Predict the 3D structure of the following.
Amino acid sequence: MITIEKKTLSVGKYVSTQHVDTVIRNYKQERWIQNSERIGKEDSLSGWWSIEEMEEFLEKAKMYGGDGIKFYFGAYSHDYAEKPEYAGRQTLVMVATKQKDGAAGTTLNKDIYITEGNNTNILAYNMVRLCPPSCGKSTGTDIESPEIGVTIVDNGENGFMVI
């Protein structure tokens, strides 16, 4: 009898509120403030997709043999016309992947490309709702706001900033 062993694809884990607060605080202090100064406005701190959008993307990824998703950090160009309020801000892009064995026992998560008609494109999803600029605005009965932690950033000669 032949036994086929399936590799586990799990790499993440559930984390505590303290962990989330810590990594966000670190990001704000070590990267966000510099990004914001460089682009001349507050950079995005988070992005949001609906569960329905994510489920649809996951189903399409599975349809094309995907077994994982990469989240790429990106930034819109400074003259981004489709959504001018996003110009210069960072974003997230979801890309469907398929795990492959690489050389010397390594594991690779290869981006999936699909051909539709005469076009071949990466299987990816973007246009996450960015905060800022889309946080703190009324959305019906709820107020959208960054709910995780408050961080005090020392700006040296420019004083302190609460974010």
Notes: The chain is about 20% helix and 30% strand.
